[in-house]
Each structure stands twice: as C-alpha cells, then as structure tokens.
Design a protein that fits this description.
Structural class of chain A: alpha+beta
Strand content of chain A: 15-25%
Distance between the termini of chain A: 33 Å
Order of helices and strands of chain A: EHEEHHEEEHEEEHHEH
Helix content of chain A: 25-40%
Oligomer: homodimer
Largest interface: A-B, 24 and 24 residues
Number of strands of chain A: 10
Chain lengths: ~280, ~280
C-alpha cells in the first residue's frame, strides 16, 4: 500500500528537505511523525528536494506501508473526523503529532493510484519567487518568504525577459553544476507580475529543475529589472552555457514550491518508467 | 518640530507596543533607533497601544524634536535617496539601524501638520483578524498571523452577527474592565469574508477600542459560527454589559492594526482637544 502525502512548510527553520545527520530537515521531521503514528521506519520519496530555507505550499511525497503499518492506518479510522476514511484521517493524526502552529503540515493523505511515484511520475513542478523592491516597500509580516531588493525594478521588462527564456534548452548557465547530471530542461512558464501589495511575484514552471535554477533565473531577471543586463543578454547567457557573475543566485527565503503536476492515473506508471530510464543515461 | 511615523511590525517577538522594563517592545526598539539617528531620548506617542503578539501594518506615532535633533534630521538629507527630503530620508536611516529583515519597520516619516497628535487626533482605528478553520486549512507560511479554529465555521452567519453589533453602545461585555475607563464606543464597521485562500478575515473599525475588545468581538462571532451561540445572543450579551464565559478572547496572533484615520488637517487640533476633554472626564 502506497500513500500520497501533500505537504506545506515554512522552510525558514529547516535545513532543507533531505535528511542530514544531526540537522533538522523536513524529511526527518515528517518521517519521525509517521513513525510515531504507524510504527517502523517509514521512508518518504519526494517530488522536489528543496534546499535549506525554501518553502512549500504544494510539495508531494509518497510512503510505502508494510502490513503492520497498514493495519495501524485502518485502526486510526475510529479517531478520524466524521466521514473521514482511514487514509484521510492519517493527515489529521500527523497534525496532532507535529502540534499546533507547526512550521510543517501534511495537508492531505490519500491512497496512491497504481503506478504513482511522487518523484518519477511528476511531469512538472511550479515555484513562486517573491521580491519586495522600493515600489512594494518592506512588510515585516511577509519577511520570511520575500526577498528584499533596494532598487525600483521594472516589472514589465522583467516579465518580457522571463518569457524569452521559455522552451527546451540547456540551462547550464543558470544551474550549479553537478557531475553526470544533465542541465537540459523544458521551461514551460516563466513570468512576473506585481500582487495587490506591489510585491513582484515570479511564476516558474518546468518539467524539472536543476540545482539552484529558479534562484538563478530570477536573479537574471532582477539584473534586467535594474538595468544592469539587457533583455537579450539573458538569452545570450543561457546559450553560452557558462555561468556569469552578473547573474546572482537569489536568497532561498523568497522561494516557494507551489505545485507538482502528475499525468492522468492510467499514464502514471509509463511516466515513471520513462523518467527513470532518462535519468539512468550517462 | 513634530514628525509623524508610519510603522509596521510582526508582533510575534514583541511584548506589545508600550515600554516595559527589561522587555523587548516596539516602542523601546524604535525609540532606541531614533536615539541612535537623532541623539537624545526621543519619546513616541502612538495611535494604538497594541498588546503582546499583536501585529501592525498601519500603526501611526509621532515624536517631537528639539533643536539639536532637528539639525540632525536636516544633516541626514545628504544620505537620503534621490529626490528624498530630509524628513522622508529619516525612515530610510531608521531602516538602516533596525537592519535588513527586521520585524519592525518605519514605512514613512513626514513633518506632521499643525495640531497633529498621533493619539488624540485619530478619529478611528481599523483592525483585521484572521482565522483558518477546517474550510481554509492550515498554512504554515501564515501561522504567525492567523489563529487556527478546528471547526468548520459558517462565514455568512458570522458576517450577519458581526453587522448586528455596529453602532454606539456600551461594549463592557466585550472589554476587559479598567477602572475609571468608559466602555462606550462607536463600532463603525464589523464584517467577515473569506479571502482567496479561504481564510476568514474580520474587518473591525471603531472610533476607539477598549482593552481586548476586538479579540472578544471576534470570539463572540466564532461562537456563532460554530453554532454555540445564536446571532441574537451576541446582541443580548452586549446589552447585558456583563462578560460571559461563552465569549472567548481569541489569541493575539490573529490580530493586526491595519489603519488609523485622521480628519482633514484644519480639524486636527480641534479633534485632539475634544478627545483630551472626553478622556479627562471621570
């Protein structure tokens, strides 16, 4: 039995998603909570391994249960709310374990459809990046998830620049290199708007992201918005496949994983096989 | 010379506005910052003395400057941004002192018009109160400014109940009593809506508020939204002028002072005199 978990967290006080000895991470916190509810040593597989300080409102993970754990899920039904099935009630029970006003929450649990793999079945990830510039002003109540830039940024120019990067390309110029890992990605959406408070919000969607890619892409747009780079420069930088000092990797604080996309249920297994095969290539 | 300061803060790590020996408060933090920039011992007069844990996006205060401090404001002009006058530049200099990503910020400074008194000239205060119930779900990124209620609340019934309390009344049933202080207030606006995320947001506006009044008023509405009290009950409770255990004073965490209203400049002094006279009555 495989359970899908939808997860939200404030990344400020986590050292990222992935387990690291002696450090507080989202994975470690949730696996400990699952262990308390279900016993054993549950292991989570996640769609997006976020870095230290990065937030999530729409993270997705899965966990496989053995027979004993499955029995403990069923036994929890009685404790769930009215009309809740045993698997849905698991989210409520996990909330009880992590406590009120926790910085991480499981917003939903459901039995995963056949072939579902939180990581390998995913067809796209969506992030938001928030910047308060001199136009927006500084709001202390949003400081944990908004990066401050002193300049007055040109949102229209940034939006046009962002859209010019869309498509299937080698994004090596906007990635921290990792050995044997491809930097070819399909950037599906990339645009900027100001929200009601004037905060600049980037919407960034791709099939997958290489390391620090979103934070470098938004850094390139800020350079354009400040007039330090021209709109065409950031396409040329991309096509040079070389990292340049003008493109700063912006702080984790402004970044939130908002959504993970999966195909229709009957395509889940096929998608997972394709992804695994592609990642296995040298 | 009197300066008006517009102020925003995340109240989570403050023990409220007002100075208290040995405790971190907003007043103490800002007066220390003003002292570093201007010298002397500047003292702030504030529109709304918020309790521990209460936030503000639209707090207003004033400070009176002596000749030496006035000279230091003028001397700061050179350090201000392009086109900034010396008084406006003071806000920028204070931001430099409190530091990047501080939980308090002076969003604006300007020379106060004649007769302006941040406290006594104010004609109304507006607060917002945010509640995440079972419909909204829990968002860790908003936890510092949102109160969680487990039940599923009826927003329409709460809105109707809130509106039924509007008007000039004795709100003793919804105030923590203080000796010699009147509890007669004019509640100008009180309504509820769900925002885009489903969070219940109360808008509460009055000429002034007695102690813990907003948190008791929203507590009464939650009792109605849960079905523990009827809509008419909360008017009856108000008119009884007696506090009742069914009305819980909700947590400070959900409360934000969003706006303070002042009359047109030529009425500022008259309003301040009226308010002082009224408050001085036994």
């Amino acid at each position: 039995m495989r359970i899908r978990l939808d997860i939200a967290y404030d990344g400020t006080h986590f050292r990222g998603w992935a387990r690291q000895p002696g450090l507080r991470t989202v994975q470690e916190t949730l696996e400990a909570a699952l262990g308390r509810v279900l016993g054993g040593e549950p292991r989570l597989v996640v769609a997006g391994r976020t870095d230290a300080g990065v937030h999530a409102t729409g993270q997705v993970a899965h966990v496989d249960l053995d027979d004993a754990q499955r029995e403990r899920v069923r036994a929890g039904r009685a404790r769930g709310g009215q009309g809740e099935d045993a698997v849905s009630a698991l989210a409520t029970r996990l909330t009880g374990v992590v406590g009120a006003y926790s910085d991480v929450v499981v917003t939903r649990t459901l039995e995963a459809p056949a072939g579902f793999d939180a990581r390998f079945s995913a067809v796209w990830r969506r992030y938001a990046y928030r910047i308060a510039d001199a136009v927006a002003g500084y709001d202390p109540l949003e400081r944990h998830r908004t990066t401050t830039v002193r300049a007055r940024l040109d949102a229209e120019v940034m939006d046009a620049a962002a859209r010019s990067l869309i498509g299937l390309h080698d994004f090596a110029a906007y990635c921290k290199p990792r050995e044997e890992a491809t930097t070819i990605r399909t950037l599906l959406e990339f645009d900027w708007h100001r929200d009601e408070q004037g905060v600049l919000v980037a919407n960034v969607k791709a099939d997958a992201f290489c390391h620090s890619m979103v934070r470098a892409l938004v850094g390139a747009c800020v350079a354009v918005g400040e007039g330090r780079l021209g709109r065409d420069d950031i396409v040329e930088i991309r096509d040079s496949r070389e990292r340049v000092p003008e493109v700063k990797v912006l702080a984790a604080r402004g970044l939130t994983l908002t959504e993970v996309g999966y195909p229709a249920d009957d395509l889940l297994e096929q998608r997972a096989e394709q992804t695994r095969a592609r990642r296995a290539l040298p």
